[in-house]
Design goal:
With 394 residues, this protein is mostly helical. The protein has one domain. It has 15 helices and two strands. Strands 1-2 form a two-stranded antiparallel ribbon. Strand 1 and strand 2 form a beta hairpin.
């Protein structure tokens, strides 16, 4: 049977049916909200270990994120489908804006050599966070309209969006954030019903491109980070005081937490004596382990697993193609982001500057995570719209 396609008259129909009906109280979306809230509190406590003033700001960011999440949850999927391309256009425009060389540094201030933030006064805004949201919504909308992508032609628009957004983010340069789009689009495309040979072709292409990028595209400091992680895995400490300093100190603090962690004062002293860079941001998981030990790390990991389970449970129950793929994309993105951040903290992956979702300090990151949670909740509380059959079954 050929894949179902949306006609012009059904273009945006059905997806807002749940908005007109009684909302569901029992839904796996609550798992996502509960996990996100616990992770946000853990993050505030971890940040407050060494930066109490930033913990206070993070608490304010959390309140803003919760409000934004609630507002997004009220938006019916039909409206999201209509406006997603406008959101993508705004995100791309902002990604281009931060790359313009003559923009004043007071507006776009480079950090660690990366032009990725716009100074908004009270807080900085990172356009790549908006791009993640827009990318998921637009990819889901395309596949929902097309049905299962059975040809290369059906894959070209999502690939073009992927290439354009990832290319702009990589030029900032923010390679870590750029890499997160790959597992997201892969998960969404697989669930949309792509032929498996295209999946294996994409994996093979990535396996070939990765070593080529190391020699051709990566900058010297990026190659040095990869060299440092390889040496670190081998037990070679020659980079410990140079490019590998942050990774070595993070691993040391992870081990210093033991099973149940340290009291706040002792944890602060350990972190300050080890001079861990970005302990409130990229390396916050090391602080979580040092402060709360293996038990605290297990709670955090359990929350991420619960969030992913809730997202995929929402996707499984959905009979609307757009909602199904939005849930899959959000679950895949945040789980991949968690994996990369924790992997680089415990010495399994090179340091790329990826934040830990809900936990790392930063208004843009926290707001983006809660907006994604609001999208999930909005889908989860609405009764499934559409037929009984999975929209991407052949």
């Amino acid at each position: 049977m050929s894949p179902s396609r949306y006609t012009a008259t059904r273009l945006y129909s059905g997806t807002d049916a749940g908005f007109r009906l009684k909302l569901r109280v029992v839904t796996p979306a609550w798992l996502c909200v509960g996990a996100a809230l616990v992770l946000s509190v853990i993050g505030i406590l971890a940040i407050g270990t060494t930066r109490p003033e930033l913990a206070a700001r993070q608490s304010i960011f959390l309140m803003v994120g919760l409000a934004a999440s609630a507002m997004v949850a009220l938006v019916p999927p039909r409206v999201l489908r209509v406006t997603c391309w406008l959101v993508l256009a705004v995100a791309v425009a902002l990604l281009i804006f931060v790359l313009i060389p003559f923009v004043p540094k007071s507006l776009v201030t480079p950090r660690n050599g990366s032009r990725a933030w716009i100074n908004m006064g009270a807080a900085d805004f990172q356009p790549s966070e908006l791009a993640k949201i827009a990318f998921i919504l637009c990819s889901a909308q395309w596949y929902a309209l097309q049905g299962s992508p059975r040809s290369i032609a059906a894959l070209l628009p999502p690939i073009a969006i992927f290439g354009g957004v990832v290319g702009l983010i990589a030029l900032e340069p923010d390679l870590g954030s750029a890499l997160l789009f790959a597992p997201t689009i892969l998960a969404m495309t697989v669930v949309a019903g792509v032929r498996l040979r295209y999946v294996w072709l994409a994996i093979a292409a990535g396996a070939i491109a990765a070593p080529l990028a190391y020699f051709v595209a990566f900058k010297p400091y990026q190659r040095a980070r990869i060299d440092a992680i390889v040496a670190q895995i081998k037990g070679d400490d020659r980079y410990e005081s140079t490019i590998g300093f942050q990774g070595w100190r993070a691993m040391r603090l992870v081990g210093a937490g033991g099973v149940f962690g340290n009291d706040k004062e002792h944890a602060r002293e350990l972190i300050e004596r080890n001079r861990l860079p970005e302990e409130h941001n990229d390396m916050v998981f090391a602080v979580v382990c040092c402060r709360f030990g293996l038990a605290g790390a297990a709670v955090a990991l359990g929350c991420y697993a619960m969030f992913a389970f809730g997202a995929f449970a929402i996707a499984i129950s959905s009979r609307d193609g757009f909602c199904k793929l939005v849930a899959v994309g959000i679950g895949a993105l945040l789980f991949a982001q968690m994996t990369v951040n924790i992997g680089m903290t415990i010495g399994l992956l090179p340091i790329t500057g990826v934040t830990l979702p809900f936990t790392s300090y930063g208004g843009s990151s926290l707001l983006s995570c809660w907006v994604l949670t609001g999208l999930l909740f909005g889908i989860g509380i609405r009764p499934p719209a559409g037929g009984e059959k999975d929209p991407f079954d052949g």
